[in-house]
Structure formats: C-alpha cells, structure tokens
Design goal:
Largest sheet: none
Distance between the termini: 19 Å
Shape: globular
Number of helices: 5
Strand content: under 5%
Structural class: mainly alpha
Helix content: over 70%
Order of helices and strands: HHHHH
Radius of gyration: 15 Å
Length: about 100
C-alpha cells in the first residue's frame, strides 16, 4: 500500500518540478531527482507488495503511520538536495507542512 502512496506523492511533486523548470530556477535538479527517487521507490514497493487486499485494524494503523513517515522522508528530499537545509531541518519542515 505504501508503494501506491509514494507514487501519488511523486505525481504531486511534479507540480513544483514543472514550475521550477518553467521559471528556470536552480531548484529544478532537486525537484527532478526527488520525483524520480520517489517514483522508483514507490514502484519497487508496489512490485514487492503481497496480493492481500483485506486489512485488519493493526495493519491499517501501520499503513497510515508508515505512509506518514514515508511522506515526511521523501517530502524532505527537495530541501536536502537543494542544499538549503540539513536532514533534521528538512524533515521538520516537511512534518510541519503535512
């Protein structure tokens, strides 16, 4: 399930990438690499996913908590790759934005 969430995140990250590309900003590399890394990881996680579609309560909590953590980590990539923030600051900024 987290693979699908990362694919959705990578699609939503293409909007800032396209805006940065259109305005010829220096952050276009950071956004492009972040979109690519998130998409590849999401596709990999989707490919190793089991075929079970019924979730129990504990699995649902794990999907939500794991998805939130993955969004925070992968959402921090543009901040880290752009060179503006270190890892802890980037993850904090992403968590506060979610």
């Amino acid at each position: 399930m987290q693979g699908y969430l990362l694919i959705i995140l990578s699609v939503s990250m293409t909007i800032p990438f396209l805006i940065a590309y259109n305005q010829q900003e220096t952050s276009v590399f950071a956004f492009g690499l972040s979109v690519l890394a998130t998409l590849i990881t999401g596709l990999f996680m989707k490919s190793i996913n089991s075929t079970s579609t019924k979730f129990e309560f504990q699995e649902s909590i794990l999907v939500v908590a794991g998805g939130w953590l993955l969004f925070c980590i992968f959402g921090a990539l543009p901040y880290i790759l752009g060179g503006g923030l270190n890892i802890s600051e980037a993850v904090f900024e992403t968590m506060s934005g979610l």
